[in-house]
Structure formats: C-alpha cells, structure tokens
Amino acid sequence: MGVSLLGKYAGRRGDVRAACRVLILVFAATCPCLAMAASTILLEPIRVASQTYYFRGHAGMASASNQGFMSNAGFVVTNDGVVVFDALASPALGEAMLAAIRKVTSKPVKHVIVSHYHADHFYGLQVFKEQGAQIWAHERARATLASDFTLQRLAERRTSLAPWVNASTRLIAADVWIRFDSTGAHSFSLGGKTFRIIDASGAHSPEDIMLFVEGEGVLFTGDLFFTGRIPFVGDADSRAWLGTLERMTTVRPQVAVPGHGDASTNVMQDIALTRDYLVFLRKVMGEAVAELISFDEAYAKVDWSRFERYPAFREANRLNAYGAYLQMERESLAGK
User: Looking at residue 268, what is its pLDDT?
Assistant: First the structure.
C-alpha cells in the first residue's frame, strides 16, 4: 500500500518529499502519537491589547487542507497565569496554541473559557486539561456535549480531518459549568485583571458565552460575530441572535475578536455584516412563509448577490436559509 501510494502521489505532484509526508500522515491516522508528531502547525499570536492576543483561522470551512484551522481563539496574560478563550479544532492545534503562548509567557494556563461546544472551538481542550488548566463553560453545554450530534460530528471529523482529529481525540467536559444569575454575567479576577463572562445562550447555540477583558477593552464573541465571512446559522435562533448583537454594543468594546475572521477595531461598522445577513434571511424566508411558497422555490427566487462573494457562502448559505425558513414558520404559527 505504501509503495503504491508513494508512486501515485509522486507521479501526480512530482515531489518525493511531499509523497513521503502523505505516507507519514497515513500511518499517523492509526497512531495517535505519530499524528501529533506529524503536525507542523505553527501559530502566530496577534496582539490586540497590551496583554491580550488571538489566533486567526483561515477563511472558509474546516478541511484537510487547512488542518481544521478556520476558527479563532485567544488568550490573556495576567500576573498569575493565562486565561484562554476557546481551544480550536484539534489537539494538534491545541498543542500549537500552547507552544505559541509559551513563547509569550512562561506563566501557566489557569482557565480555558469555551464559547460553545461546536467542533471547531473545543477539540484542543484535552491539551490544556493535561497541562492542569481548568475548563469553564455554560451549564447548557452539558446537553450539547452529550448529544448524538456532537458524537456524530466527532466521528465525521476523525475522517475528514485525519490525522489531526483521530481516535485519541476526546470530548472534554467542563470542570466548571457556569450558572448565570439574572444579570446574565459572571465576573472573576486573576493576576490583577478582571474578566466578565457574558451569557448569550440561545442565539448561535444553546450555550453561547462571550468574554470581556476589563481594562483591555477586548470582547471575545465566539461565533456570535463574524468579520468578512458568512456565519453558520443552521437552526440557531436568529431573533435571539439579533438581540445579542445589540447587547454587544452596550459593552462598548474597543476590540471585538470574532469566532471567525479578523479582529475588529470598528465594532459597530463590522458587526453590520452579521446583523444584515440575519435580517435578510429573516425577511426573504419570512415572505416565503407568508406566501406559502416552498423552501426550494423560495431559495431559487432570492437574489443572493449581496452576500455570495463572502467566504463560506457556498458551504453555509443554503443550510442557513433553510434554518431561517423553519424558524419563520414556527414564528408564524406562534403569532410572532
């Protein structure tokens, strides 16, 4: 098998070294240790405030070509340790995050805050857990973590993102499941810095949370805000999501780090794409529901040219529109 694969790959690429790398990855898929060793992922932290950094994923959807690195994560250095927000889409990426953090500071990672339990944001958790970090997430994420969808997605990613996601990739539960009071916020301090965890659940996912770094003016938003990319909406509650976008503006961040795309220093302007896309979905699908037009017919009639140039449009838009169509049906039946 190895010889035939080597010949096939080398013949197509004309590069024996590249062919050898393919063989390494094939064997890595069945050997977790080799899978980790085979990773050549190097992450460069981008500073957005004096002690706050983020890692920017590639545009588009997760794929073998980008090794699953298509979402963002971040970290904040304090006098007593590091607070991390999200852990990216594979243990290999988690290892790369940790290596990059260690180049900035020798202080240990104390807490990892999980924005939500979607595959591209938490598969790196096991690396931080093994290093002694405490994992925090919304209490509603318990159900998401135990769901058939989460288990099925892991099985799919073990194939589509092999060897970076493989048999050794584990679903890591939180050590602290945050229960929010009526304020919808939970504050804590570490090493002279104060953090505010903000409940935004029920918008993009049942367990969305954001993290505001007081004094640094940085808001980590998870997938509630995208820059330069179509969001993945799916069956999310677009009405609640629009309300969450309004709530973001009340925090008045100087910088907003989205779940995907570039950090924003002009939050009000950059939030417009996510907001306008959701408003547009609700409008066109709501009109179709009111006119009793089938989804397929409605989708074909819509002029999507305003959004189709953005990354992830081709992969996500039809599913987003279908989710919006079903939600508008539910709202219509409920008289909303």
Answer: 85
